[in-house]
Batch of 2 targets.
Target 1
Amino acid sequence: MVVIWRRRNCLDLDQRLSDQGGYPFTRKGLPNMAKASEAGGGRASEVRRTGTSLRTVIVGLGLGLSFQAFPSIAQTPSPPPDTMEARVEACTPCHGNNGQGTSDVYFPRLAGKPAGYLYNQLVAFKNGRRKYPPMNYLLEFLTDPYLQDIADYFATQHPPLPAPELTNVSQQVLAQGESLVISGDAARQIPACRSCHGPALTGMEPGIPGLLGLRPNYISAQLGAFRYGTRTAKAPDCMQTVAARLTEADVTAVAAWLASRPAPANSPPAPKGTYALPFACGSEPD
């Protein structure tokens, strides 16, 4: 059963925290809506929506909690079905229905990615190897088997990929991105992106993600995180090795070109072993 707190109760709770000298963010990094409201303007309503969504996510994923503290809810005569589809509705505010993504440039599409890749990322957030406070907090107390169930669910979803994103970069920049993705740069020991992510850029089972349907800001942010070590993967960390050899201009070009690519109608990841990787990679074990 998924417990959804009433919006009014959420706001009342935050007001009490504010009256007691609460901070703009809690110790776990979640927004204090009452403090945000004091800033005024349209942003306040947006923060209220975010705070409510985060509470929904927290409670939606924590399905093992006891209902003893909520006797009126526990006595509801017709509880909703406890299915994985119902549980992962908690993920939709950021990642969209069925994991198809949203208009937010920094929240990625989850649907159709290899289950092994999704599981590795969930574990990385849980263990703090990937750092984003809301995700770290939400996953901290979930079991690894449950994380695998979540990964398996999103891997089987295949909503249509979004239309290519128009960019305002020059044709020269796009050509640079295309060259790095298709051919790499042997002089700088940079392999082509497609040598790992596949000829069609749809990834490979079990742990290599596709690169289509992502927004340029998300791609550049992740490449930057690998370059500076704020995002890491299992050793040998092949993405960190490659990203460290890229310049800022390379990152901009690769992100712009990938985001401009039309998506094939059918874009599942290639089966394991379809092609050989250029070097050892911890996320794709032998």
Target 2
Amino acid sequence: MYLYIETLKQRLDAINQLRVDRALAAMGPAFQQVYSLLPTLLHYHHPLMPGYLDGNVPRGICLYTPDETQRHYLEELELHRGMQTQEPPKGELPITGVYSMGSTSSVGQSCSSDLDIWVCHQAWLDSEERQLLQRKCSLLESWAASLGVEVSFFLIDENRFRHNESGSLGGEDCGSTQHILLLDEFYRTAVRLAGKRILWNMVPCDEEEHYDDYVMGLYAQGVLTPNEWLDLGGLSSLSAEEYFGASLWQLYKSIDSPYKAVLKTLLLEAYSWEYPITAC
């Protein structure tokens, strides 16, 4: 089992890197700069970096190691602007991971595509810390906009989907009507920029109904370590209300993004053929 899990992890990492490379290759220099530096700007917090604000802003991404582009950026700041890099405190860091999702690195990506970024954070962040992190993300959105890149950040509590919370994620969330479909889209399209691997990718399709039991079995066998994985939970069955709400939402979205809306509507149609037992 251990060798099987290690093989899966290597495949996940290889596919993820391929998707990162594909996303960068399809876009211009400004997009490449923003896409590459976002993890660094969330891991560190310094007045010389975009997104800085006063206060005890949560910083630090679990398992983060700068790549060559990010190291070069940090070295430039240290060499030419005298910045002293301060590593986040030791222990479990507040940001579980940073992931792009949606059209990025898919057939729906175009040269004018925007970026949807999920910043998944620990459940123990208090209200003030979440507000500070949200303000930092808003500043990073403004920084990206100044470079001509549209970015939208969404803060995701790691327990959000497990507790069936329907807090607003902005327009794409459409209230509580797309709860499972939203998680499904994340699992299908997420590209890990930094942080923990997504645990759902390690669960076979035929174990989806027993997601929690299967995961606990892997933990009990010692082949997976809980604090190394992002676990947003399994995908439960889709309700008729979610189909209806999602269909209405895609009808509305088709006004501005007809091609993307068609792709998502076709996916909904494919899922509907298997209702009420949908294998997302």
